[in-house]
Amino acid sequence: MAEHNPAECGIMIDAPTTADRDDAVWIEPLGDGTDTGFDAWIHIARAADHVPTGGPADTEARRRVHTRYRADHTRHMLPAPVVEAASLTPDRPCDTFAVHLRIDPAGRVLDAELGPGRLTRSWTMTHAEAATASGDPAHPLHATLALALRFAQTMLAARRNAGALAFYDLLAGFATNEEGQIVRLDSAERNSGYIIVQEFMIAANAQIAAWAVREDLPILFRNHRLAAVAGDPAELRGELDDIAASGDGAAFEMLRSRMKMVSRAATYGPTVHGHHGLQLPVYTHATSPIRRYPDLVTQRILLAAALGRPGPYSPEELAATADHVNEHLDAERRAKAEFFKQRAQAETARQMEAADFASLPYKQFARVLQFAVERGEAPPDSPTRPPAVSTPANSSSASSPPSTSTAAPTSCPCASA
User: Fold this and answer.
1) Is-above-0.90 flag for pTM?
2) Rounded to an integer, what is the distance from CA 79 to the centroid of its chain?
């Protein structure tokens, strides 16, 4: 590449449909060789400059809490003109909040600098394009993205060595989220470009939180606990690796359900309680201020501290904001769970009425039977209904009463239940 200022360069890697670009990354080798570590920059859109605290846009953003993506539309947290003004774009210089990290070859942070930054040279790419460029020496950004992938792999290995429940199976399309739950990736995310973004953002959020602790600066920390019965995250990760290698789908689904049960939802708060899913002593969300209200609040606090200005929130206001966000997200989780529960019940009722059980997988068939039991009836022609007994006229037991055995046929998938 031509001469450039690495501190003002960035690549925005997002989904193909992304319109609100709020982060960009750049990386260079630390020193003369690629084995000496990394100089990494994460630029975050300065959404706080466009949303005055307490103004109409801020009030509405606080009410909505975050942008909600649907298959047919997107409900933005911020008004469209604000999203457009705050988003990073390669067409113009952009003011940012910048995180500059110096990382050794083992993934240890040697130094972290935070403060106002500027993006004057940037590019946009999809996850798939970034993955392709990292392996294509002919691509103009190959050297940068190949180093970015190496950085991501180094940081991922360091987190796993620390016991984090970090897992990506790009072929099968599964990964662990921040809370240690197994989630399915969209098809556009099943590549190394997705891993690059995830590891850069986790590194930035972790270092922002650590800086705030060193400065004794209350922000909205992201705290996470596992259930007391969860066990060692490193052992869970080892079990996950073994199951993924074996390709045992049933075992995988069982572990997925167990991990969901023992992982508590992360919460926001002005005090630090650690993040067990990531195995980090302190963490926050600060890299998506256009899409998440906690990130916007934290950015205001960080900018004020970096510029020597008074803090925008009192301790009571910050605690109240955390409570509001946590309650909103908890209500969303409960509403979502109820929605899927009702949809599953409706589908089960439809299958029961159709009485077509032969083609049902075991889990769906079991739900039909459970639904029938709860309603106090048996589905018509269900294998739980005793088969009619036909006794030959010349049988020695012709005068005996019909058999009352309720043994299920051997083809019944619930015979051992």
Assistant:
1) no
2) 24
